[in-house]
Each structure stands twice: as structure tokens, then as C-alpha cells.
Amino acid sequence: MSTAAGAPAPRADGDPPAPSTGVAQPQGRNTGELVMAVLLAALGVYLLVDAGAIAVPGSSNTVGPRFFPYAVGALTVLTGTVLALRVLRGDRGPSDDSEDVDPDAPTDWRAVAVIAVAFLAHALLINVVGWPLAVALMFAAVAWALGAVGVVRPFAIGLLVSCVVWIVFVKALNVALPGGTVLEFLTDWL
Amino acid sequence: MALDSLLGGFADALTPVNLVFALLGVLLGTAVGVLPGIGPAMTVALLLPATYVLEPTSALIMFAGIYYGGMYGGSTTSILLNTPGESSSIMTALEGNKMAKAGRGSAALATAAIGSFVAGTIATLLLALVAPTVVELAIGITAADYFALAVIAFVAVATVLGSSPLRGLAALCLGLYLGLVGTDVLSGQERFTLGVPQLSDGIDVVVVAVALFAVGEALFVAARLRRGAVQVINHKGSWMTREDFRRSWKPWLRGTAFGFPFGTLPAGGAEIPTFLSYATERKLTKHPEQFGKGAIEGVAGPEAANNAAAAGVLVPLLTLGIPTSATAAIILAAFQGYGIQPGPTLLTTEGPLVWALIASLLIGNAMLLVLNLPLVGVWVKLLLIPRPYLYAGILMFASLGSFAVNADPLDLVLLLLLGLLGFVMRRYGWPVAPAVIGLILGPIAETNLRRALAISDGDLGVLVDTWFSRIVLGLALVALVGPIVLRLVRGPRATPEEVQQTGALQHPVPAGRDRGEEDR
User: Fold this and answer.
1) For the ranges A92-101, A127-136, B70-79, B365-374, which has the lowest average pLDDT?
2) Which residues in chain B touch residue A121, judged by CB atoms under 8 angstroms apart?
3) For residue B153, what are the contacts with CB-CB under 8 A and spacing of at least 6?
4) What is the reported pLDDT for A132?
5) CA dihedral over B250, B234, B84, B361, signed as positive or negative
6) With pLDDT > 70 as the criterion, what percentage of chain B qualifies?
7) Could you tell me the pTM of the whole model?
8) Quick check: A130 pLDDT over 60?
9) Is A72 helix (H, G, I), strand (E, B) or coil?
10) Of A143 and B82, which is predicted with more confidence?
């Protein structure tokens, strides 16, 4: 399982090394965040411009619906600009840790893309084939992208869980959730 | 007076039906909270839909159980899982992990559980005592005061909590923007809806919270999944000894003393008090050599602080309607979902409900103590869920929760887009909590600002008309500018982690590592 407690040094236990994202791929990180900061500033500009288009009812004699958007827009432009400048100067955010994240692993864009597409597909499929089947397909795709073995097993597990969840939420808790023709027919008696 | 009301709350909470809901909430909260990668905020966000169909009292009782259960679950994860977790439990992780590896896992789990119980009970009682007083003080505050409170909550969450104030502000801006989308309450005008009819009701808080926390987290983990077998530390070993108790009880109480006040402050959250508690225990202990190798005080204190802060956060939430943590923001959303607006009038208009909630927090806390230690074997099984299934399952429940709100697939597309936003935010170290707070508190701040300005006929001076708002806005300014000035005068700002390091304390994540060269 694990070694005994070692020296008091951080993570001296010989298990996964301490996160060191600050060192890894500095250039990729910087460009990416620079884009984020610029987009944030652009969002602020959009807020400022579009706030001017908000209709102000004649009755509002004081502060209308435009005031707060202007304030938020100004703050956003300011924050985005300053952040962009700081990122250009080499400032980097703290790495965000999670139990299951390997800080030294390169970003697996393929997994992210597969999950995003699978999720989008399931959103569009729900009203066609019902939530249980759509979400089971998504479950299988996500599990596959994350390295689960096989395709049948993840799909079977996903379908089992989604059907149970559907029955609990729809039949017991009366949540509106399309079940698909087959499942709705089979559980009609409930 | 508070005692009578609390007893009345117990009478409501102790009905068999409500006890079942409390138990259900506690079990669900612990089960979800124990799952790796799921913090208290995400637990609450994911389980929020489960309460939709219930009537408010039962729902909030269940919710109270989920809230405390999620806190408990997190500490089990950090003690038994061999990898660093989220920041508020990182102190527990440091010492508890070492204890578990040295074969004292049971003692670590026990001191965490009992410490959480002690802290949770004391802090919840304090909440019951303090809340009526705060309400009395708050009943006279003006709309301008309210706006000032919202501002300091924004500033505190954005700049004090995270280690990068600017990124906190950036996240806050995103949240404020998302809060603006929809129909303006006061004038009925659509704002930033891009002509999409579904957006005219605004973006649902559940969708945003689930997207930023659950979907963003799943994508973040997917991008850099730790491959290979899951390592869970054996939790066998002897239960707490008399010696362990002797060493734990003071840290429990001190941790509570740190946690509760910090939780009630707008600069709340559990991070700072857990760090302070850890530093204090390290100073006061008779066994300094054990720190960093598994000192029981280092589990007992921070864990108590963590739970006491969780109760403290409810003070501003229930009495002022000001959420100071992401979890509190989601609870506020739950209240709003039932048409209840937390604030100074809540105790009078919804008194029985609030007292039933507080009573069930105490009940749930006791349940957690009784349930958790015997059930630890079950929680360990949950820790072993293969990660592909775990994150696929998280996405399944994210889909369920967001779709159940309006039964509109567009919400799921929105969930995905915001999830991708959450992913890039996490990737570049932008904290998520300020975005959630901005989304919830933004509209409240705007309403009060406009109300104040309507009374004064647009004169901005009204915002600093009372001493209360002057002091609060002054503090907000200090919190905003202070770090910048300190950075200029003394170099990069000292974070809790750095205070730790200068105190020669060990920390599993050398978070200050690239801060030294930041201003190259």
C-alpha cells in the first residue's frame, strides 16, 4: 500500500512527487492564460458596449438598468488588462490540485475533446432516445476516454445506473425526465 | 429566547419523517463528499436537485445533513487517500495521511470525526445564540449598508482567500457577468440575453455551480488523470487511546475558536482558520518532533476549525443573506429556489424553518459521529471506485441535476460551455468560488445599490452616509489595495502557505514555490 512515514520533508514518502506545475510547460501556460485575460477584457468591452443598448424605461428617474452593467464592464476591462500585463511579465497562477490529478502529466486534449463531444451529443439525444440511454452512451464514452477497459462493460454499467436513477427520480420523486419509449413502456405499471 | 426557539426547532426536526430526511442527507452527503475530487461545494451542488421535490422544511433538513456530511466525507478522503486534496482539508491531509501510513489511520479518523462533532456542535450552538443578536443589529441597516456588505464579500472572496488576488477578481467578474444575464428585476428590461429566449429568465445558479464545479472538475481531471491503481491507505490500527484523547481535546476547542469567527466574517471560508489552527498546535504541542510525521494535534485542530467555520458561514448567510463561501452561495440558491430570501427578516418570517434547520444541523452532526466510524469500511470502498467510472458518473449526475431544473436540453449545452470555462479557469489557477459568489450576490448587490440611489436621487454620497457603510467599504478598500501595497513594499504578498513556510512548517504542496520569482 504505502511506505511508512519518512522524514518530515514534504512528500518524502516516495509516492507521487509533489506537484510541480509551475515548472512544466511554462510557455503553453502563459499563452493560454494571456488569451484568457484578453478574452476577459473583451468581455468587459462587450458589457460596456451592450449596456448602452439596454432600453431604459422612461419612468426610471434615477439609476436604471444600465448603471451596474457599466460598473461591472469597467471592472472587467480593468481586471482583464492588468491580468494580461502581469501574465506577459511572467506571472503564473497557482496550480489547482485534485486528488486524482497527476501534476506532471501533459494535458490530454483528446480526452477533453471526447468528453465535450459526448456530452454535447447526449444533450441533443435526450429528447430523441430518452435520458437513460443518452446518458449511458455519454457515460460509456467518458469512461472510455478516461481509460476504462472495453466498451460493453462501461455502457452496461452506465445503462444500469441511469435506469435505476431514472426510476427513482421519475417514479418516486416525480421529476420530469424523458425515459425513452422502451423504458417508459416497461415501467408503465409503476 | 434563542433557546426556546431552538427547542421548537428540535420539535420540528425530530419528527420521524424529518429524521429520515436528516439521515438520508447525512448519508448522501458523506458518500458524495468522500469521493475524491468532490469538495463540499460540489457535493451540495450535485445533490441540490434531490431536494427539489420536497417541501421546504424537509428539503432544508436534508440539505443540512448534506452540508455537514460533505465536510465529514472530505476529511476521510484526505486521511486515507494517498494524494493531496482540496485546500481546506490539506492540513488534515498532511498529518492524517502520515498517521495513517504509520498504522494509526483509525486514530486519525476518530480524532477528525470527534473533533468535527465537537466543533460542529459548539459552533452550531453559537450560531443559534448569535443569529438573533445579529438580526437585531441588522434590522436597521440601510440598502447602502447592504451594498457595502456585498462589496466586502466580493473583495474578500476574490482577493483574501485565493493566493492570486487578480485571478480572484477575474473570476468574480465572470460571475458578475453571468449574474447580469437575464431580465432586470427592477425595470423588466432584458440584458445580455443575445436574443435567446431561454436566457431571459437568467442563468440558473444550479447550472452554473454544477458546471464550474462538477463538469469543470471532471474535464480538469480527465486532462491529467493520475493513471494506475488507486492507492488507499489501510485504515486499520487501534482506536484513539487515552493519550490521544488527552492530546486532542484542547486542539478541538482551539480549532473551534479559530474556525467559528473566521467563518462568520465576510472573509470567511475554512482555509485561513485551518492554517492558523495548525500553526498554533505546532507551537503549543509537547511533541513538536511529531509534526510532519503524523501528530494527532495536527489532525484534531484543523479538522475542528474546518467544521466550526462551516457553521460560522451560516451566520452571515441566515442573518444577512450574504454568502461568504461557494457552498454558502449554493445554499442561498436553494433557499431562493423555495421563494425564501435569507436576510434580516428571515428569522421573523420563516422562524420555525430556520430553527428546524439549526436543530437538524445538530442532529445531523450527532448522526455523523455515530455513523461515520462504523461505516468507514463502506467509505473506503467508495474511494476505490475506478476513476473512469467515477468521473463518468459525476457527469451523469451533473446532467440529471441541470436537466431536471427546466427539462431543456439547452441547459445542458450551457452546462457544457460553462464546464469548459470552469476547466480553463482551473487550468490557469483562477479560483471558481468568486464566480459562484458573484453570480448569486451580484443581483443582490445591484438591487440594494439602486434602491439606495433611488432614495438619494442618484447621489452617490448615500453609499457612505452611515458609519457602518464607511467602515465596511473602508475595510473592503484595504482588502483590495492592501495586497498590492504590500507587494510593492515587501515583495509578493504572504499567503497562508508562506506564513506556514516561514514558520518552518511543512506543507505537502509547496504553493509558494514560484511566487518568489513572480516579479522577475
Assistant:
1) A92-101
2) none
3) B266, B316, B322, B323, B324, B437, B441
4) 92
5) negative
6) 88
7) 0.83
8) yes
9) helix
10) A143
**Cβ neighbours of residue B50 under 8 Å, at least 6 residues apart?**
A173, B28, B62
In chain B, which residue's Cα lies nearest the Cα of A146?
Answer: B388
For residue B396, list chain A residues with Cβ-Cβ distance below 8 A. 135, 138-139, 158, 161-162, 165
CA distance B321 to B44: 18
In a domain, A103, yes or no: no
Q: What sign results for the dihedral spanned by CA atoms B326, B327, B329, B334?
A: positive
Residues 179-198 of B with CB under 8 A from A: 180, 184, 186-192
A73 falls within a domain: yes
The answer to whether the Cβ–Cβ distance between B413 and A146 falls below 8 Å is no
Say if residue A113 is in the same domain as residue A146. yes
**How many A/B residue pairs have CB atoms within 8 Å?**
312
Q: Is the pLDDT of residue B360 over 70?
A: yes
Q: How far apart are the two ends of chain B, measured CA to CA in Å? A: 59
Partnered with residue B225 across adjacent β-strands are A101
Contact A1 B292 (CB under 8 A): no
Kindly indicate the confidence band of residue B90, based on its pLDDT and cuts at 50, 70 and 90: low
pLDDT tens digits, B365-377: 999 988 877 888 8
- What is the reported pLDDT for B200? 85
Same domain as A64, residue A22: yes
Rounded distance between C-alpha atoms, residue B312 and residue B106, angstroms: 28
> What is the span of the domain harbouring residue A6?
1-95
The confidence score (pLDDT) of residue A76 equals: 94
Interface touch B396/A162, C-beta < 8 Å: yes
* Cβ proximity of B183 and B437 under 8 Å: no
Within an 8 Å CB–CB cutoff, is residue A42 touching chain B?
A: no
So what's the pLDDT on residue A44?
Answer: 93
Residues A5 and A91 in one domain: yes
User: Which residues of chain A have a CB within 8 Å of the CB of B176?
Assistant: 72, 75-76
The residue ranges of every structural domain in chain B are 2-502
Is A158 in the B-facing interface, judged by CB distances under 8 Å?
yes
Per-residue 3-state assignment (H helix, E strand, C coil) for B409-422: HHHHHHHHHHHHHH
User: Cβ-count burial of A1 within 10 angstroms (0-12 exposed, 13-18 middle, 19+ buried)?
Assistant: exposed
Q: Which residues of B touch A156 (CB under 8 A)?
A: none
Which three cell numbers mark B255? 480549532
pLDDT band at residue B517 using 50, 70 and 90 as cut-offs: very low
Do A102 and B225 make contact, defined as CB atoms within 8 angstroms? yes
pLDDT at position B478 over 70? yes
Bridge partners (DSSP) listed for residue B190: B183
Q: Across chain B, what does the average pLDDT equal?
A: 82
A24 interfacial to chain B (CB closer than 8 Å): no
B36 vs A: CB within 8 A: yes
**Does A78 share its domain with A120?**
no
Strand partners, A60: none
| pLDDT score recorded for residue A13 | 37
ipTM field: 0.82
Work out how many domains chain A is built from and give that number: 2
* Substitution target from A68, A76, A133, A167 for chain B, most B beta carbons within 10 A: A68
